[in-house]
Structures are given as C-alpha cells and as structure tokens.
Amino acid sequence: MGFRTLSVLCVLAAGLPAWANPAGGNPRLGRLFETFMAPCCWQENLIRHQSPKADDVRQQIRRMVAAGKTDDEIKAVLVGEYSRRILALPEGAAWQWLWWTPWAALMAGGLVAAWAIRRMMRRPAGQAPAAPPVALPEDWDD
Asked: What is the CATH number of the domain that holds 61?
C-alpha cells in the first residue's frame, strides 16, 4: 500500500460518514447502543454489529427515545423482551469482582515489592558493618 493510498484512507477515516456510526452523532443513542448486545448472535453490542435484527433493535430504541422514554424504561423493555442477556455489562453480575481482581493483585504486589526493597536497603540500627575480609600473610604465595 502506497503512502498516498494510506493518506487517503486516514483522511476518509477521520471524517466517517453517518452510516458508519449507527447513532448518527447522538451521544444518548451511542450510549444506549453500547449498552445492549445484538440479539442475533450475542457477540457484539449494537454500536458495532451489522445485521437486520440489530437494525430492528436500534430502530426500536430510536422509537422509544423519540417517545420520551428514559434510559431505565428502555432497559426494562429490552430486558423484558430479550432477558438480561441483552445487557453488555449486566448489573450486579456475580462475576463483577473479576474486573477489580487484577488491579487489586497489582497493587498488593507493588506494596509487597516496595516493602521488600525498603527492608533490604535499610540496615538494622545498632548493627556494626560487616568485618573486612581477613588479610592473608605475605608468604602465602610460596
């Protein structure tokens, strides 16, 4: 791929057309589309997935937003229709502690490492430095 082609692709990507973003620049729709999974395969959220079923759910959300429903009301309708599986991040999920476990382990490891390094660097008070090595007699080489 040449430099010109790459430059043109970068310029086009910077100004993506409206069809590339299903929310059309509406932040509330974008947030809602990220919140719900595509019910056809349950592998991507509605902001990314392209399928007729995902289009139907996006249209359903647009109609509810236009009707003045709140985000919680929209969520209740979709969960009632598709179950909690429609949620990209289920609230109160039993596995939510997994999000925090790596960070907690990293912090604990950092604290233990800092404590060990500080302990190695500090010499206990009142302890004399190690004695110098024993001098060998001059006739040792013989």
From this structure: 1.10.8.640
Neighbour tally for 65: CB within 10 Å: 16
DSSP state of 78: H
CA distances to 3, 7, 54, 136 from 10, in Å: 11, 5, 28, 74
Question: Which of the 8 DSSP states describes residue 134?
Answer: P
Provide the domain count of the chain: 1
In DSSP notation, 127-138 reads PPPPPPPPPPPG
pLDDT tens digits along 14-37: 444 434 567 667 888 888 888 899
- Number of neighbours of residue 60 by Cβ within 10 angstroms: 14
Residue 61 domain-assigned?
A: yes
Cβ-count burial of 34 within 10 angstroms (0-12 exposed, 13-18 middle, 19+ buried)? middle
pTM of the model: 0.52
